[in-house]
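worker-3 :: picked Flotillin
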Amino acid sequence: MGNCHTVGPNEALVVSGLLFAPGLLEGLLVTGYSGRPRGPGGCCGSDYKQYVFGGWAWAWWCISDTQRLSLEVMTILCRCENIETSEGVPLFVTGVAQVKIMTEKELLAVACEQFLGKNVQDIKNVVLQTLEGHLRSILGTLTVEQIYQDRDQFAKLVREVAAPDVGRMGIEILSFTIKDVYDKVDYLSSLGKTQTAVVQRDADIGVAEAERDAGIREAECKKEMLDVKFMADTKIADSKRAFELQKSAFSEEVNIKTAEAQLAYELQGAREQQKIRQEEIEIEVVQRKKQIAVEAQEILRTDKELIATVRRPAEAEAHRIQQIAEGEKVKQVLLAQAEAEKIRKIGEAEAAVIEAMGKAEAERMKLKAEAYQKYGDAAKMALVLEALPQIAAKIAAPLTKVDEIVVLSGDNSKVTSEVNRLLAELPASVHALTGVDLSKIPLIKKATGAQA
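worker-3 :: tokens ->
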């Protein structure tokens, strides 16, 4: 028997040897297997091959062989280093190609003949060699400007030249793009600088011309704008003037009507206010009459209340106070009479005492006068001597307020002589004041004689 093999759309299945013929499996299942298989599939030794992708195929055991080939897209990176262009400039070019095995039966058979049994990397190497060879040959026929400035055309040319060769291997070039182009002699940078300068120059000229045209156009637009603005402002001013005039007329008419309405309203309001005031006056008169009647009743009530609460108690209080006053008066009279009697008695007693003392003093003075008369000058001298200390005390009284007395004299004997002089003059001073001559007293006479 055999196996049924399935394959996805990204892979191709190749069955070789004794193949499954249509109707053969069905016959074997119905009648059983006897003898050699018959049908389009052939028999042993047949060179017929079956190519299947995205389907299934039957393979007999031992007499059929199955192999698979990937149909997925393969990315190939092509590098050409130091390849001279038609101008002799060495370039480094890198391209990227997307290739895959074609699924047309004839081309798939060709690809299977060449790549069946090889892995994907071996297939990539074969295609890479072919693409790099064509890339090198095409680089030698183009200038640097053609390669650098028109990369799409360059890539298209590579695809067109290499497509027949890889197509004979059953491989299709899906895309080919130039990834990078550069050199190590600064040719491209110099070319870029020159082109940049030219572009910058053209850009500056274009900017200047554009600014000039823009300035001219801007001035023209401003002029047109100002003309339109002036015309519009004039129309607006005319419309505004007409509007203000019409508005003033309307306002005047409205004000007249408003004033008339206001005057009529005020007159009517005054009439209504007068009626209201008249009614209020009548109400006030009625209220006032009622109030007068109420006040009269209130006066009577208040009078009675005052009589009951004030007058009657006041009369009772006055009578009480009068009785108390009369009692107090009698009391005071009696007290005054008693005090007067007391004072009179005291006065009489004091008068008797004073009279007795006067009589005693008179008797004393009489006796004293008789004694003075009897003794004569001696008595007078005694009185003067008794009065001298008092006189000295009165004279020296101001000196009691002095804290310290300083006698300015450098001679001690002079101070003594001054004191003696004062004592010697004392009898003369007393004689001038009292008429008593102290020098006649023996003690004083002796003392003054000694001082002399």
